[in-house]
Specification:
Layout: E1 3-9, H1 16-28, E2 33-38, H2 53-64, E3 70-72, H3 85-95, E4 100-106, H4 119-125, E5 127-131, H5 138-152, E6 156-159, H6 168-176, H7 187-195, H8 205-223, H9 226-246, H10 250-259, H11 268-277, H12 284-288, H13 290-305, H14 312-319, H15 330-341, H16 351-358, H17 362-378, H18 386-402
Parallel strand pairs: 1-2, 1-4, 2-3, 4-5, 5-6
The chain binds 2'-deoxyguanosine-5'-diphosphate and fe (iii) ion (2 copies).
Length: 403
């Protein structure tokens, strides 16, 4: 029976510590093979430091190319959606029903794995090999293993590895500070990192922001329904077009567009709970219409805390994209209008006219959209936010003064 080890990770970048764990697993448990499985988009963490999957896979390929019992699996990278360990294990098992799988992880994960999706299935599909870490004592580990074995029938063994001072974070920092990394990564990976100027931060801003936008797009593709994702792409590119027409920053417009509805997948109660937990004020109207109104405020919060947006103008554009506000910045108006006119919008009054106006004058367009939105809201039972009314009054006055 074939014994296959599975080494998952972000591999940003892969380093000698990863290879050492795989080698030790191979020796100590007489495995025939170890599969390296780079993760797809790690959407919640470090969006600005995690390189695109292709780059991380290429470095992994280089790191293992001379070791016959190591191979690369694109099973997680190839999936458009978020991947879970239990599903990856199922796919691998389906592809090799006769093999026995050994899932490699750091000892810390023994305390997290219960929170992963379907821990019961994970333990059913693979033996777990937990690599010792300095911060966990042997006694603690054995206690936790006994607990998981009792609860899930888990098969867990301790993998003994020498203490190693290496992490992907450390490597990225050393590269940024122009320090050598040759005893931390295989030579081919070191060369690749330097040849492609990875992790250096000095590479052209344009390139950097492109990577960020690409990662945000992937994250939204995972998080949103396909309909909402298409709308989001429409808003992002429409905002870019409006930025071109009115001389605003295109990358900011696209970032705001991509993230503006990022809180929409959360249910009303979840948005309220999130606000309460983080001390964000909720008005009565917002509480009564959380999905229509609160998603803008929660979206701005997530854009900052989860997706790392720091530019206040972008955050405000997201924050006010549903109601608007008096005296909006150019970017705020652009996002508000793009949301209304993006190519996927249907069944909205005067759309053709508003689409043309948008490229001529942002303020009169604001007045027109607000007028129609208020008229529409009066036909529904949604409460009108006083901010929507104030914004309308503000832009109505402005546009009547000029015309
Ligand atoms: O998130 P989207 O559907 O892309 O668009 P949006 O964020 O602009 O608007 C969400 C909904 O909120 C839309 O149906 C219009 C509505 N809306 C705008 N102003 C108000 C409002 N709903 C209520 N209840 N009160 C308002 O003042
Ligand atoms: Fe919205
Ligand atoms: Fe929207």
């Amino acid at each position: 029976m074939k014994k296959i080890g599975i080494m998952g990770g972000t591999f940003n970048p892969i380093h000698l510590g990863h290879l050492e764990i795989a080698k030790k697993a191979l020796e100590q448990f007489a495995l025939h093979e170890v599969l390296f499985v780079p993760s797809g988009v790690p959407y919640m963490k470090d969006l600005d430091t995690v390189l695109p999957a292709e780059t991380r896979c290429e470095m992994t390929r280089l790191a293992i190319r001379n070791i016959p019992s190591f191979s690369l699996s694109l099973i997680e990278v190839d999936k458009a959606k978020n991947t879970y360990t239990c599903e990856t294990l199922k796919d691998l098992k389906d592809a090799a029903p006769d093999a026995t799988f050994y899932f490699l992880l750091g000892a810390d994960s023994l305390w997290a794995i219960e929170q992963w999706k379907n821990p019961q299935e994970i333990f059913g599909r693979a033996h777990v090999l937990a690599a010792v870490r300095d911060n966990k004592s042997m006694a603690d580990m054995e206690k936790q293993i006994a607990y998981l074995t009792g609860k899930f029938g888990a098969r867990i063994s301790i993998l003994e590895i020498p203490a190693m001072e290496v992490s992907s974070t450390m490597i990225r920092e050393r590269v940024r500070n122009k320090l050598p990394i040759h005893d931390l990564v295989p030579e081919a990976v070191e060369n690749y990192i330097y040849d492609h100027k990875l992790y250096q931060e000095e590479y052209a801003m344009g390139e950097k922001s492109k990577i960020e936008l690409q990662e945000l797009r992937k994250a939204m593709e995972q998080e949103l329904s396909s309909k909402r994702y298409l709308h989001t792409l429409g808003v992002s590119y429409t905002a870019a077009c409006l930025a071109m027409a009115h001389g605003a920053d295109m990358d900011s417009a696209m970032t705001a567009g991509l993230l503006h509805d990022c809180a929409k997948p959360l249910k009303g109660e979840e948005q309220i709970a999130l606000c309460e937990k983080n001390h964000l004020e909720i008005s009565d109207v917002e509480r009564l219409n959380p999905s229509a109104l609160l998603h803008a405020k929660v979206g701005a919060y997530l854009a900052e805390t989860r997706y790392g947006v720091t530019v206040p103008d972008i955050l405000n554009a997201i924050r006010y994209h549903t109601t608007g506000r008096p005296q909006m910045s150019k970017l705020e108006k652009i996002l508000y209008i793009a949301d209304y006119i993006e190519p996927g919008r249907r069944h909205v009054a005067d759309l053709e006219q508003i689409r043309q106006m948008a490229y001529q004058n942002l303020d009169t367009t604001m007045a027109k959209i607000l007028e129609n939105t208020l008229a529409y809201l009066k036909t529904t039972d949604g409460q009108i936010d006083s901010m929507t009314e104030e914004t309308y009054e503000y832009y109505k006055k402005g546009s009547s003064l000029r015309h």
